[in-house]
Amino acid sequence: MPIVEAVILLVVLVLASNIISHYLTFIPVSLIQIGLGLVMALFWQIEIPLDTDWFLLLFIAPLLFNDGRRFPKRELWKLRGPIFANAIFLVFLTTLLGGFLIYLMVPKMPLTVGFAVAAILSPTDPVAVQSIAKRVHLPENILHLVSGESLINDASGLIAFKYAVAATVTGVFSLSQAAGDFFYISIVGLIVGAVLMLLIQFMRDVLRRQGINDVIFNTVLQIMTPFVIYFIAEDVFHASGVIAAVTAGIISHTRNNHLIEDLPELHLVTEKTWDIIVYLLNGIVFVILGDELPTATSHIIKNAQFKTWQAVAYAFGAWVVLLVIRVVWIYIYQLVAQWRKKTEKASFRISLLAGLSGVRGTVTMAGVLSLPLVTASGAAFPQRSLALFISAGVIIISLVVAVITLPLVSPDDAQPLQTRASLSDMDADDLVDTDEDEDSDVPKAPRLTDDQSRIYIMRLAINAIEEHRRQENQRAAYDLILDYQFMIRRMEAKSKDDGAIQRVANDEVALRRVCLTGERQAIERLFEHHQISKTGYQLAMKRLARSQRRLNQADQASLTLIIHSWWLWLKHTVHRIIQLARHQRNPKVENERQLIDRESAKAAIKSLSKYLGREDVATAELDKQAIYHLVVFYRNRIERAKSDDSFSREAYATQVNKLRIVGLGAQRSGVQTLLEAGNITWQMAGRLRQYINYSENVLMMGEDEE
Questions:
Q1: I need a surface site. Which of 9, 161, 406, 592 has the fewest CB within 10 A?
Q2: DSSP state at residue 444
Q3: Which domains does the chain have, with CATH numbers?
């Protein structure tokens, strides 16, 4: 398949996997991507030959460079002992002990091939762990441990695999040569990565002093850095390009802290560019993994020497061997650390979590597919097909078992989730109210999630826009408020449980029925008084009938509030485009439509007000945001239904921009308030301010284009 078409197809499948993941939230996106890759191989018969060298250069080098660049320095230093123990000693222990046990378990498999299989299965895959961790809320120390060791264990695993394969091919193995080779490529790789990264940063500083500080240039320079460093380390110094890329990423991270304030635009552009690259590379890696599964398994399935169920049993047995070795190693390490009084009491659950989190991935597949077909004597490589099948099976088993068991073993986080959900129902003033007596035992201010913080500052923006709303800018104000409301409702739907979402949806359905009743009465009154034509009356009643049907469906099905709101917004926009075209042909029809919209909206607000004033209505139990949302929605319709003679698009654009600036200023003040109250961390405050800065940049770019 031509490379261009293959790249396009891979990117499309990555996008499709994330869409599917949005609906199948219980399945990690990595497994969905593997499934799509498998479909691509089986049904479309598309194969992408996987070569270890180019795979490590194009995928592993930039991904590990980015991991090193973003890995928390404090956690990396704090966990340096277990990270290096797992990344080096555990890899070699797994290779020797695991390889010997696989040799005993699988008949006719030579010992050196068992070592090769265990060696290539020893590296863990941080990408898969991150995908799983998003859904099971792994403890941070476990996540940092698995991520940290994966920065290094690729190199040690590939070295062990290389010498096990060489021993199989040539029949000769030298322990001293293997040990010397390992120390050479590791230490030299570390030195090469550090020196080259410092040279690149020095060159960048020199260019900046010469006035070459273009953001795009510097961004491309940083993106190319891991590829260049990996290539030089591997081809020039014959060292570990993986370790060189990781080292360069860590050094880049230490220096970036001094550049953020100096070049904020470079920092923002670089981070977002890396987000896009990592998003695509992570997804493509697992799609390719799924595409390679038939290649790795088809030969053993067709082989008469082993039955398929036997091969599956061998794969499961190999996974059990690797898991037991890993869990026992980590538990013993905890006991030793406890004995030396460096850590808390050893926990078997922590060991089991770390063991299950060590899933295998694409480095394993890329390595095992590089097994040679023949040995030095010309004979076929012994049990190559079975080695491929076992490796592919362990990858899938480790992923699936982690998805199923990690939620059961990980600490119960139902209470934190309940706390976070309850915070979203609190008032903005309640969230930042930290006044307390010094003598009283008052709990700390509640920590907010990203969505809750954004909801809070968006409500501040709405309040600020309301304060600056005047007769001349009402249309712009209501448009902005309605946009903020849509975003707030969407984020609220994510932070609440299904029961809370359904209650809010039920409230809005009931309130919308009241409003529709008022609209219908107003339209009938206009028709009875001959203020609108029969055609206008019929069109308006059809519109109300469609809205009524949607509300009925919302009662019968579990239709969320946000879906309903976005549908109304889309319908209103399309309706405005159609009516604008009609207005150019028939001003009388447009004037009649404006009259219907204006009077029906007024009647809806009046009907809603009467309903809320009734004694039999429990107003306190209704969702206040739903009420406010409806009022703004109808006020916005009234403003849009006014005569276009008094409407100036230039003045409207100016009013919108002024109000947006007011709203952004209120959001920035809200971030500072939350930070001072202890409701958010410095990191979250930085992300919120970054979001506000982006909004300001978009606003200024729009003004420049005009």
A1: 9
A2: P
A3: 1-370+378-408 (1.20.1530.20), 448-495+645-705 (no CATH), 498-574+588-643 (no CATH)
Backbone angles phi, psi at 380, to 5 degrees: -65, 145
Q: What is the pTM of this model?
A: 0.64
Q: Which of 35, 32, 34, 38 is nearest to 17 (CA)?
A: 32
Whole-angstrom Cα distance, residue 696 to residue 688?
13
Q: How far apart are CA 122 and CA 120, in angstroms?
A: 6
* Of 352, 358, 451, nearest in space to 411 by CA: 352
Backbone phi, then psi, for 678, in 5-degree steps? 85, 15
Q: Bridge partners of 637? A: none
Instruction: Give the CA-trace dihedral at 90, 95, 96, 100, to 10 degrees.
Output: 130
Number of Cβ within 10 Å of residue 461's Cβ equals 25
Specify the long-range contacts of residues 78-82, CB closer than 8 Å, at least 24 apart: 79/141, 79/144, 79/145, 79/148, 81/337, 82/145, 82/149, 82/330, 82/333
Name the nearest CA neighbour of 295 among 46, 114, 10. Answer: 46
- Residue ranges for the chain with pLDDT beneath 70: 1, 50, 72-76, 126-141, 254-264, 304, 341-344, 410-445, 493-505, 553-587, 616-623, 625, 643-648, 698, 701-706
Q: Please tell me the distance from the alpha carbon of residue 251 to that of residue 249, in angstroms, as a whole number.
A: 6
pLDDT digit string, tens, across residues 272-308: 898 899 889 888 888 888 888 887 787 777 776 777 8
The C-alpha atoms of residue 582 and residue 8 are separated, in whole angstroms, by 41
Contact (CB, 8 A) for 93 and 325: yes
In terms of Cβ atoms closer than 10 Å to its own Cβ (0-12, 13-18, 19+), residue 566 is middle
What is the rounded distance in angstroms from the CA atom of residue 328 to the CA atom of residue 336? Answer: 12
Q: How far is CA 371 from the centre of its chain?
A: 34
